[in-house]
Amino acid sequence: MPTFDGDYTKFNEFKSLFDLMVHKNKEMGKVEKLHQLKKFTRGRPRDLLEKFTMSAESYTKAYEMMITTYDKPLEVKKALMKELKTMEKFHIGNMRHGFDRIRAIVSSVEKYRNIDTDDIIKT
After folding, report:
1. Residue 10's closest CA among 91, 61, 83, 62?
2. 2, 13 in Cβ contact below 8 A?
3. In the chain, what is the greatest distance between 2 CA atoms, to the nearest angstrom?
4. Helix (H, G, I), strand (E, B), or coil: what is residue 4?
């Protein structure tokens, strides 16, 4: 399970794995789920979660807070476009890696087609 550090572009992957392994696990109590949520975060997300006491009610609130804070398609698309704009120039030795990275970014951006790109291009 990857550790989530607040990078918007990594949240969907983190949430999918967390949901599969922890959130939807009926054998795990909510206090244990909150412990796991804290365990697999660092940086700002971890700081936000530290404010929650270890209780079943806190888990529900903490999980929802993570979604409202980090499930931001526009932020993901902005970050991907910024990464695309700031890529280093290609040289003979790194062309394949560069093209692979561009292809991965474009593929990720396509998932967010319905988001207004005019807002992103201005940033």
Report:
1. 83
2. yes
3. 56
4. strand
Q: What are phi and psi of 85, to 5 degrees?
A: -70, -30
The one-digit pLDDT tens for each residue of the chain (123 residues) are 889 999 998 999 999 999 999 999 999 999 999 999 999 999 999 999 999 999 999 999 999 999 999 998 888 888 777 877 777 776 777 677 666 777 776 777 666 665 555 444 444
Please indicate, yes or no, whether the overall pTM of this predicted structure exceeds 0.90. Answer: no
Indicate the SS3 state at residue 90: coil
Residue 33 CA, distance from chain mean position: 18
Full DSSP string of 34-85: HHHHHHTB-SHHHHHHHTS-SSHHHHHHHHHHHHHHH--HHHHHHHHHHHHH
Residue linked to tokens 């922890």: 22
Q: Rounded distance, CA 45 to CA 2, Å?
A: 14
Structural element, H or E, at residue 9? helix 8-18
Residue among 58, 61, 67, 52 at smallest CA distance from 16:
67
